Amino acid sequence: MRLDVVTIFPEYLEPLNVSLVGKARARGQLDVRVHDLRAWAHDKHNTVDDTPYGGGPGMVMKPEPWGEALDSVIESGEGQPVIVVPTPSGRPFTQELAVELSEKPWLVFTPARYEGIDRRVIEEYGDRLDVREVSIGDYVLAGGEAPVLVMVEAIARLLPGVLGNAESHRDDSFAPGAMADLLEGPVYTKPPEWRGRGIPDVLLSGHHGKIARWRRDEAFRRTVRNRPDLIERADPAAFDKKDREMLSILGWGPGPDGRFGRVAPDVEE
Ligand code: ADE
């Protein structure tokens, strides 16, 4: 997969040289190219921003440097990239979108600073290419570079051969499949006792069926506590008899439409 990032802070993307993404680059599984937007700003001060039409606070990124930068990046490769524009006003970045983007051969990220990029840039490329405006969460950062790091890591770990073990993302929270719509429960490793705290006996039992059930029960506990909205939205057909028993213990039951909601006060541990 090829990834291009156009930014006024190329050094902000240094973490792409480290850890999982850095290793994937070193192995040739990822071709990452970081470009300085100011290379396409031609005045004495390499200006990339200007005051907003209509007034208001802050500055807006000028269209000309972005247009030249994107033309140049797009011309440098084969075929058409998907352009990912990080913005707090975008669609939410989810595991589902990470999976979709991980299947594309080429992504171009356009992290903005200031109040964002002149709208005409998004329209211009949106007419010709697949352009996605994406938010990583309901908070406002100073720029899109940190969101690019977040998205690239979520996407890169899904590429074939990038994580050591192909099974590693099967049980991820939000991964499609058996544990869909549930958060992952707690995990333990050696030593068997630490500061007087042991390991749940079932994990030492060697009984795979019981372990799987315990993990799913713990996933319900955690999801009910941290993300009750996930249970409320879940398709109740995904819940088997044991799931329903656990949900009932946690104070949850089906409503008139079959979907689950809280029917008893929260159980504190
Ligand atoms: N730029 C600033 N805040 C952002 C956010 N939450 N998501 C994506 N890009 C952003």
TrEMBL record:
Main location: cytoplasm
Keywords from the named record: Cytoplasm, Methyltransferase, S-adenosyl-L-methionine, Transferase, tRNA processing
Cellular compartment(s): Cytoplasm
InterPro entries, per database record: Alpha/beta_knot_MTases, tRNA_m1G_MeTrfase_C_sf, tRNA_m1G_MeTrfase_TrmD, tRNA_m1G_MTases_N, tRNA_MeTrfase_TRMD/TRM10
Presence of keyword Transmembrane helix: no
Catalyzed reaction equations: guanosine(37) in tRNA + S-adenosyl-L-methionine = N(1)-methylguanosine(37) in tRNA + S-adenosyl-L-homocysteine + H(+)
Binding sites annotated in the UniProt record for S-adenosyl-L-methionine: I136, G137, D138, Y139, V140, L141
Enzyme class (EC, first level): transferase
Keyword S-adenosyl-L-methionine on entry: yes
Superkingdom to which the source organism belongs: Bacteria
Boundaries of every tRNA methyltransferase TRMD/TRM10-type domain copy: 1-232
Any Pfam family matching the protein: tRNA_m1G_MT
EC code(s) of this entry: 2.1.1.228
Family: Belongs to the RNA methyltransferase TrmD family.
Role this protein plays: Specifically methylates guanosine-37 in various tRNAs.
Subunit details: Homodimer.
Full protein name: tRNA (guanine-N(1)-)-methyltransferase
Organism in which the protein naturally occurs: Streptomyces hiroshimensis
